[in-house]
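User: For my dataset I need records formatted as: sequence, then structure tokens, nothing else. Please produce one.
Assistant:
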Amino acid sequence: MDGITFKIYNSIGALPSLWDTVAQSNVFLQTPYLSVLERSAPVNMECFYIGIFENSELIGVSLAQYLDLNKLESFGERDKCFKTLLRNFIFKNFASHSLFIGNNMITGQNGYVFSKEIDFECISEILLQSAYEIIQYFIEKGEKIHLVSLKDFYEDCSIELKKYRLKEIYEFSTQPNMIFYLNENWSSFDDYLAVLSKKYRDQYKRANKKFNGITIKNLSHQEVLVHENTIYELYFYVAKNAPFNTFFLSKNHFSTLKEQCGNRFQIFGYFLNKKLVGFHTLLLNDTTLETYFLGYNETIQKENMLYLNMLYNMTAFGIENGFERIIFGRTALEIKSSVGASPVNMSGFIFHTNKLINRFMGPIFKKLEPTLLWQQRHPFK
């Protein structure tokens, strides 16, 4: 840590002028996206922006998010089993004030980026010290942080990080991140279809046939504003029926994102008889295509295989625009594998500020994490 310091900022306006230069490889750490969080974050979220300096030179940037789970009416309404109810009770009473070092709104290693090579011992120190400084910030406000999570590291990074300070903290892994590594020889969606096995070509044909009558439109900022209420209703239906949520987006999130990020944020509307019945969103992140939030009318989704068609459309966009991979995230693992995505394990580190509870973090976490059974599909010849 010789010569390495950090500073935590509460607003985008206070960030150093070279912030975006350092963050140029990751859209989720650049000021247009961070401005979206500042202007339209979930009501229970507060963001902190961490600048990392070598002497006086900015060499790294990071993000932290505080979540007050007491402000949520629901953690998700899909699963009603005893384990889920117990998990919700524990979160509400023993982990309602949570701090995430990283971005809790997306899947992937988007918590920090550096403009030069930094050793993992230094990174682990910076992440932990940042967490402790934010904990102290809330203590001075009369609030207590219960749970701290350093989230989403690929295996090569987590192996290195836990050689140092993070070895003292419980490492956890939940559902894998579904990533579609696109074949560099594909230049069109037809190239992709040509290498599918008969079973999965037939799946595509069924989905495409069911899609009949639905039109897709890449929405402008003005069109997002026109359809804002419907977009939010479709999003909220999907979000509240997820197995677990720690936040819900604000109603102006998508319009703010389109305004701030322009063509780097794509939102596609699905229309049936001129009525918006679904949408999906994408963020263009260097050579990676990041899938973001989506929403749909459940009746249309079932009758028209809307979700599967969205996955095919995301795949087509990625291929036709020369992306190397598509990050599909942690939900709906089986259907995502049926279009070509593969599971990639990611881990995080988590601790409770109550030392007694923290001693049993491992057994507690394992008891509360729902068992997930799924079968990976292999769609290619």
